[in-house]
Structure formats: structure tokens, C-alpha cells
């Protein structure tokens, strides 16, 4: 059976036995009021409005007022007039993914937006707004996941089924980090959600950042910034629904979403249009209720299933890491990665602030030796940052504090270790080996770093000189 025929058969099987209809009675801004269907629908149901130009405009029920259903459209309201027919969809909004979706680009409605033809439809329906798995049914977080970024592999090790946030302001390098994760991670399948993305950047990310190698094992969900808030919000739900399908197939899925902040902004637009009062910086209570429902869908699956490792970017408004969305997301996830503008300005990429970032599952995944190595490196970085102002001003005198002297010596080596080109891949094992080499480096006679492999040779060259000094002193006497 061809893809086209199978899709038609599946659509016929989903047709309901009866239909309910209403009429548009008012339009205010993006809000459409429909009468006659208020007893046939509930919040979250789908309604199709038939516009004058023959266009079918999908809408979602967001509330009720004075005996009328309040709808928000998934597109523009052009052609919608008073008395326009509104048709209730009985089926729950769902998507029917298959393994053949890898390498495809879809929109928030689960439709192909690339030039590779229609999407094949699977047999099992995955609800768009699925509930997270019960906590008691989930497995524990698994072993380490190689993400291909040296700083994250060593200092912020990510485990299978973990959920991490990447917090940064605009232009600090979130998209670059995501592209490296998508291209170099060791996950079986990658599901990328570009939520509220700039239209021109979507294709650049797919062709340049992902590339053919990364795209071959990826599914990309795109909703650009010019689309309706319902489309942007549903793109986030669609991303998790597709990831859940691959998880149920036993795959270890890496779910990348850029960004959770734009999802929250879309939900804020929806809630304010429905008349919900704002709570904090314009964000409504529904925004903070929807965030955990979305983010909790990532994580380990039930026994026999795979896992969804989630990495969600958070656009920090005004570089304030305590703004409402950042604070709420940080409390839900299993760790946070902070990208700092000052680090990017001095040319170190990825601009990860190691001291402000944490992976909550990392200590349990590492060996004791690995934890000690990471703690030592963190201590050196922390000691240097505490004295950074005095060091830059020249107010610190060498020899005043041995710990500070040690931190000053190792700081440029650690900075070089944390730096990584966008085209460079770093493995888990290589990262720890390189960190051990950095911390094993010792200062030479001239204060320059001496790698571990050259230290025995240096000691052998210095030993005869030390033996000759007493003899020369005796001869002088």
C-alpha cells in the first residue's frame, strides 16, 4: 500500500459519525466568539471556521463567556465574517508519527514543510497535549550521554533522561550550542523544536548547523515568529509528542527546544486574549501551570522504553537570570547551563559559566576519581574569580597566597580547555583525559607550563645542576 493510499485510509477511519455546528457571533482582536456549540465543546477542543473565501480556519476553544465559546485561531482571521459556520471536530488533536519521519521538517500541525512529499502516517495516535508519564512508572536516569561539547561532558555531565536548561541572553550563543549538540551527541534520534524562530534562521540551522549527517537522524518542528501564538505553543507540544513516539520505540532521544521562553510568551498572548489577568511581568498563572506539563514530558520512559533527554533554551530577558520564566524553569529542570555575555565578549566559546552552572545528576553518574578532578578544577576557577579584580588591577603580589598563585597559573590553561570550535567534536573520555593533563601541568623554571610528559626530562636536567652547586660553594670557601 502506497503512502498516499495509507494516509487516505487512516483519515477515513478517523471520521466521526456526526457533526456539531455553530455560528460566529463576534470577533474582537484575535478572539472569536461562537454561539450554538457551547454545550458540545470543552476547553482545548478544536473547531473549524469556514471563511468566505472557502478557507478552513482551525481554532481552539480557550474559554467561555456569556454562553458563548471563545476561540483563538491557528492563522489569520481574514475572510471570517459574522454568521460564518463553525464546525466542531470530535477527534482529539493527535499526531501519527513513524520511523520514516527522521530527516523531515514539519510544522506545528504535523504537516511536512520540506520538499520531500507528504508525511507517512503511523497507526498509533499520540495526543498533542499528552500527559507526562506517572512518576512511579518511570525508570531512573540512565548512564552518561556524550553531547560532544567538552565543557558539558566534563563539568556538566548529562545523563540519559535528564532535563537541562540552557540560560542565556540574546546573541550569546544558544543556537551554536544547540547545533553542536544536534550534530555531535551520541543519542539515537534527535527531535528539534524551533519555537518562534526567525524565518531565515530556520533553514540556516537545518542546512548549515545540522547538516546532512545530523538531519538524517533528526526530526525538526518549526513555528516561526510570525505565526499565530497557538501555532507557536502547539509546536512545543508537537516536539514532545514526536519525541515520545521514538522513546516508545526503545530509542534514546535527545529533545532540543529553542526556546521555552517563546513558548511562555505564546501562552501569555493566548491567556491575555481570553481575559486572564496577568500575575508577574505580564505572565498569567496559566503560563506557570503549563511549563511543568510541557517539561515533565521529557525524561526516562517506563521499563522497556527508551528515554527523552531534554535540553531547553531559556531566553533571559535583560540578562536577568531571576526573571519569572528563568526562575520557574530552573526549579523544574535537573540542572542549568548558564551562558554569560562577558565570557562571549572576551572571545571564549561556548560561553559557559562553569561556576554558575550545575548538573544535578552528575555526581551519581561519575566515579569518585572523576568527581575529585572536577571539584579541583572548579576550586581553581572559583579562587581565581574571587581575586579577579585585584589580579587585573595589578594589586595582587605573587607569593602572597599559594592557592591564588596556583589558580593564576592554571586559569589560562582551563580557559583554553573550555574553549571549543563549532566544528570540533569532543568525546567523554577525551574530555576527562585532557582535564587530567591540564591539572597535571606544572610550572617550569621560567614559570611557563610544562606538560606532564616533559616533566621527567626537566627533572633529570635540573638534578645535575643541583648536585654541582654545593661543590662550587665548597671550592669557593
Automatic annotation (TrEMBL):
InterPro entries: AAA+_ATPase, ATPase_a/bsu_AS, ATPase_alpha/beta_chains, ATPase_F1/V1/A1_a/bsu_nucl-bd, ATPase_T3SS_FliI/YscN, FliI_clade3, P-loop_NTPase, T3SS_ATPase_C
A Pfam family recorded for this sequence: ATP-synt_ab
UniProtKB keywords: ATP synthesis, ATP-binding, Bacterial flagellum biogenesis, Bacterial flagellum protein export, Cytoplasm, Hydrogen ion transport, Ion transport, Nucleotide-binding, Protein transport, Translocase, Transport
Primary location recorded for the protein, binned into one broad class: cytoplasm
Catalyzed reactions per annotation: ATP + H2O + cellular proteinSide 1 = ADP + phosphate + cellular proteinSide 2
Enzyme Commission number(s): 7.1.2.2
Gene Ontology process terms (BP): bacterial-type flagellum organization; protein secretion by the type III secretion system
Protein localization: Cytoplasm
Top-level class of the enzyme under EC nomenclature: translocase
Coiled coil feature spans: none
PROSITE patterns: ATPASE_ALPHA_BETA
Domain annotation AAA+ ATPase: ranges: 160-344
An annotated Gene Ontology molecular function: ATP binding
Domain of life: Bacteria
Main function: Probable catalytic subunit of a protein translocase for flagellum-specific export, or a proton translocase involved in local circuits at the flagellum.
Protein name: Flagellum-specific ATP synthase
Provenance organism: Caenispirillum salinarum AK4
Lineage of source species: Bacteria, Pseudomonadati, Pseudomonadota, Alphaproteobacteria, Rhodospirillales
